[in-house]
Every structure is written in C-alpha cells, then in structure tokens.
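Lab notebook, page 48
Experiment: co-folding of the full assembly
Goal: obtain a model of how the components sit together before planning crosslinking
Operator: M.T.
Materials (sequences as entered):
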Amino acid sequence: MPNIPLAIYQVAQIRELERLAQKRFGIAADVMMQRAGKAALECLVRRWPHAKSIAVFCGKGNNGGDGYVLARLAAERGLQVTVWQVGGGGALHGGAQQAFAACQQANVLLCTFNKSEQFALVDVIVDAMCGIGLSGKVRGDVLQAIEMIEQAGIPILAIDIPSGIDADNGQVLGKAIKATQTITFIGLKLGLLTGRGVAYAGEVVCHSLQLPAELFSQVLPIAEKTTIAYFGSCLAPRPRDWHKGQSGHVLIIGGDYGFQGAPLLAAKAALRVGAGLVSVATRVEHARCLNVMTPEIMVHGVSAAKELTTLMDDADVIVLGPGLGRSAWSRECWEVAIHAKTPLVVDADGLNLLAEFPQTRADWVLTPHPGEAGRLLRKTSQDIQDDRLNALFAMQKRYGGFCILKGAGSLILSPGKIPVLCDKGNPGMATAGMGDMLSGVLGGLVAQGLPLVNAAPLGVYLHAIAGDLAAAGEERGLIATDLLPYLRQLSNNPDHV
Amino acid sequence: MFDYFLPDEQATLTVGASLAAAIQQPGIVIFLLGPLGAGKTTFSRGFLRGLGYQGKVKSPTYTLVEPYQAGFHKVYHFDFYRLNDPEELIHIGIQDYFSSTTICLIEWPDKGSGFLPLPDIICRLEVANSGRQLQLGPGSLLGEGVLDRFVALYLRV
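Observation: model returned without errors.
Model output:
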C-alpha cells in the first residue's frame, strides 16, 4: 500500500535530502536518476496506455538526465522516441552526460531543438527541460520550446516540475509548460501546490525514489498537506443524550447596508457543520427579514455597538466580518467585538478594519484572501501570490493567532506549527459568498469545542471538499449555498476516514 | 476527479484492479455510470480480481445482485438495469447489503434512486475513440482517501 506523501518542500530541502541520500545512505546521484527516469516512464505508460510515439524535451541538467533515462527505456520498450535537446550549446552536466551516452548507444533519435522542427504527431510530450533548479526567466530555445509545445495541444508529462515554474513558490518565470500530469520526485514541491503553479502542474503524483524513511526524518518539510486522516476524531458521532448547549453558540457580526446576505450564509454554514445555536447581529433594518428567511437563526438588530456586549457574553465563538462594511456602524461593532473574551474568526471587512487598526490576539483565526492579505501587509495581492508562504508567516507575526491564506492551495498556519496546505477545492469556488461559508464553517467547528489548531485546517478542508462534491466536475455556476448539503454530509462522515 | 483514456479491455481491468487495491477498509459504495457496453462489468471484473477473487464474474443484470467473497472482503455487485420500480429493492432487503463490512458496486444506480446510500466513489465510463473514457471522482471523505491511494497505485509511484 503506497504511503501518500504529505510533506512539502522547497528546493533547499530537496537538495539536502539528495545530499544526505548520497552521503549517509550511499545512493549515488545516477542511481536516483535511473530510478526517476524509470518511474516517470511507468507513469507515462499507465497514464497514456495508447501512446506509441513520444517526444522528450531534455535540458542540460539533472532534469534532462531523467528525460534521457526515460527516453532510452521507452525505446527499449518499443515506443517511438524522439529526444529534443534544449538549453543551447555546451556540455551536459554530470549524470545527464551518462544518460545521454546511453541513449546514443541505444540508437535513440537525438535532435537539437530547432524552432522549425515539427513534433506535432506524437501522442505524449515529456518535459525534462528545467526542473527545480531554474532561476531567472526562461529564455532562448527553452522559451521557444515552451511556446511550441503549448501550441501543439498534446498531453504533457512534466518530470519533477513543469519547466518555467519556480519550485519554491509557484511563480511563472516568464513562460511555463502547462502539464497534464506531473511526476515529482523525493517529495512534493511547494511550487506545484500553490500560486500559479497549481494551474500548470496538472495532476501531481510523487515518487520517493525509494529513499529510506529514515532519511526523511532528518529534514524538516516547509509545509504539510492536509488529509482527513488528521481529523477523524474531531467529528466523532455524538452520544445520544447530547443537547444543543454542547454544540456551542456562534455569534456572527456583520451585514451592513447592501450586504445582508453575507452573515446569513455564514450562519447557515455554521449550522450545517453542527453548531447548536447561531445568532446574527446585524443592522436593525435587516433583522426581521433575516429572521423570516431562516427561523433557525436568532437575528438581533443592533443600532448601537454596546448592545453587542450581552450577545457576546452568550457566545462561544464570534465570526466577525461577513458583510460588515466599513461605515461608522461597522467600525464601532468591530471595535467592541475584537475585545471579546471568546475566540474570533475574522473575515472580510473585519480584516480590512484590522489592516487600518492593527493589533494582535492569540486566539483569533484570520481568513484573508490575497487581496485582504495585501491590505494587512501593505502589499499588492500580486506580491502575496508571488510568495504565499512568506505572506502567511508575515501576517501571523504582525497580527498573531491563526492565519488562513485563501486561494488555490490554501495555507493554514497555527502558532508553533509548520504550515498546512489544502490542495482540494476548485475554481468554481471563486464566487461571492464562498468566503462567508468558510468563516461560518470555522465558527461552527470552534463552537463545538474544537481547538483552533484543529478547527482551522479541518474547516478549510471540509469547505474545499464540499466545494468539489457540489461542483461534481461542473465548476462554472457553482454558488455558495450549493455547499450546504455537502457540509452536512461531510460533518457526519467521520468514520469514513 | 481523474479522467483517463482506456484503449482496451486490459486497461479497464487494470484500472479496476488498482481501485480495488487502494481500498483499505470495507464500507464502500461505488456507483458505476455509463451506457450499455461501456465496460462497467469489465471494470467490476478487474476490481474483483484486484481484491484477489479468481473465479468467474458474470453480469448481475438478471439476478440484480451477485455476491462474492474476494479475499477478506464481502463484495456485492448490483445491476439495476432491469429494475422497473426502485421500490422493488425493498423486497430484496436492499438495506441489509450496505454495511461497514461490505463493498458494493452498483451499475445503473439511478434506477434505484431513493433506496441507495450516497456513493463514496463515482465511476463513469463512456465509449470513446475505439476505447473507453473513464472518469473517477470521490463522493465522500472515504472515497477521497481511496482515490489518493488509487492514483499512486495506478501510476506506480
């Protein structure tokens, strides 16, 4: 049974793992290269069993070496193989030279890449050009090859990482290969799972190159992927004598003029993951309407912020921000709420106000998307996306508590822990109200007594998978409330792990 | 969601076997969708082989359900194509088949709608370019975990 790898690394740790593999365990670089090439070919043959003809694009370094190994083995297997060499003149590095020589001996067709050459008649393209060592923008014939491959519209297997993607942060370095499938080696790279890398990596599988488990215990990963296995016990079935007081009370504060729906979405999500009681504190004018729409929710019209204090005394957790707005009313409510004795989930305008009036707390969960994160850190959202991991650390340093940086490959940071990455969810979830749902889910979980350290990653995970189930392959047109039945189903499926 | 092209019967058997091998615990319901002749029973045969069952696998079209003991697992293979009314399922005691100790493969689940549990895994097969197009997606957290292991086994990583 394969062990699904969860550890996520940046280039520095991968290099260290390679170094230790050679030094402590005597696994030579060319042995790893042989294993990588073989594993990549196995993957290709299974993924595209009909493939008879392949084109392998090889760079000058070790990534190219993996490609040469794959090319030779593919030819031995009877596939029609053409190798295209990129990276200009000059010698191949180290192990790649040997792998190249083996290809020559095996009479594999080796060609220097030329812009005018045609390769459009192959079944699969293998990208072994840049690997994880790329720094600076792609240029020259590599750039040309990426452009031509893109136009060919043929399935692409990327070896280790699509060429042009920065393995540390997922940035596109000028131009990058959009892979159908990426087989990555030794460990998952952050750049495949976050930032724009997500859009380029395709389906990602990880092969350990059979490096010993002992080796992996010597290098700390930079982040870890979530799986539901972490949380099995968090959603245990309830004893039959359970009462609603034990399920906790969520207070949602928000819903300024024009945004009355946002707290309602958060409230519904909180109820569907199992909160016992949900109150909403909102504009007086909205209270009656919300009450009629959802009788399960207790809605309180708040005209003066001080009215919040009694409501806050009854709550186990406060969700501050859905549709809160930035009016004088919003600001007063915010000012009162952030001094709550209970833990807080701060979202949306709750975060925008925090950016204006910075302060720290140990027991809040901040849930910014890249735009809000940009405001919290006085940067642009592009800056945040270019280096999501460091943005996450910077936010926690400045504001304390728990931080969730939303967007493809959501990152969750708890104090004293390594970041957790959620690779579930889909682009259909980039719609209005989806963030309100997440804040409600988080509130609902905290209300049931889950420590923030569990609630934060679990909430993100449930929300993402509910989004995937609700979309069922049809992402366009997904709306926030589509998630509700799935949130309920998932919250009751804890034995299903 | 995985979307794979399967050029021949062998590929369908292999993918079925890989899915079976990825199952760590019973209590799994798999819906098999797709038209007649799409390879649902072939997939099921591969699946049962993957669990270690070596005997004959026949289509349950006329019997509604075929039971198997495959390795340690009790497997029920259903085909509701000939079902006229989902309520007929009550008469075969349908609820008794679904438990935390069984694995259920269900062809034509839409014809049993209302009497079936939610699927953990949804498998859709279509005829495409002289082969088959397979889509595999999770329906539950359990299914999510199985598919994570499936892809690792199938792609031999």
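Interpretation: Chain B has a mean pLDDT of 94.
Next step: discuss with group before ordering constructs.
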